[in-house]
Amino acid sequence: MKIRRILTNNAVVVGQGSREKILCGKGIGFNTHKGGEVNESFITQSFVLNSNGETNNVESLVKGVPLNFINIADDVRKTCELELGKKFNSMFVITLADHLYSAIIRLKKGVKINNLLTYDIQNYYASEFEIAQSLVKKLSVQFKLKIPIDEAGFIALHIVNAQFDDKSSMDNAYHVTKLIQDILTIVKYHFSVMFDASSIYYYRFITHLKFFAYRLLNHEHPDSNVDEDLYEMIEKNFIDSLNCAKKIQDFILNNYKEQIDKDELCYLSIHIHRLVTKAIT
């Protein structure tokens, strides 16, 4: 493989035709030149570049991030794939490495950023938060820093975001969490009830809300196929849950200018009924 560009002593770009990828490894770009052959024994990570826009972004990030942070992020990717059973792309490694490096520099300077949604992230994304919390403990020891739990929340959002399509962003993931929080608040106040976060019904409701929120924020509207019989059954038997779902519908319309159709009202009503029934009994 011939080198097209040398990014750092530890990162080079190679390619064939229009297809390019970044190769990382200690010393892989040291004492070499454009057009030279890569020493494949140095390669520890390989990142395929999908477009010119992505190429520029990824190369800029790689140039600014030490190799040890890329290695840390790649280990997180492997843990996520093993524990969550999903594939994570190259951009996850690069953006997480950039976040971790920036966070460590910031914390060494004594600058802390509060994450107002840490508690909610911990509840809504328990598996992702557990991975993030484990990483924070390791980083605290490795860099001899007291890293606050809020950082685990930010890392967990990176992991959550990477499980959705490429149109998503960290900002989007943060807004998803805020929307879930707002919807749960509506349900809590409507029924004057607290929920058991360990309940399977709570887990199912949160899972439904995650995908609902991502669809909403990405302006995706699945084809509506209203089952009128189902709606009438809900209207007859779960009227209080339906009224709560309609409050959520109004909230979404007023704050996000998006319309929830009858299908979504049905699904929300059923989940709310199951959740509230189990919380009360």
From TrEMBL:
- Does DNA repair show up as a keyword for this record? no
Q: Which residues form the PRD domain?
A: 64-169, 171-281
InterPro entries per UniProt:
BglG_antiterminators (IPR050661), CAT_RNA-bd_dom (IPR004341), CAT_RNA-bd_dom_sf (IPR036650), PRD (IPR011608), PRD_sf (IPR036634)
For this UniProt record, the keywords arranged alphabetically read as follows:
Repeat
Keyword Repeat present in the record's keywords: the answer is yes
Protein name, UniProt field = Transcriptional antiterminator
Q: Give the originating organism.
A: Lactiplantibacillus paraplantarum
Q: What is the lineage of its organism?
A: Bacteria, Bacillati, Bacillota, Bacilli, Lactobacillales
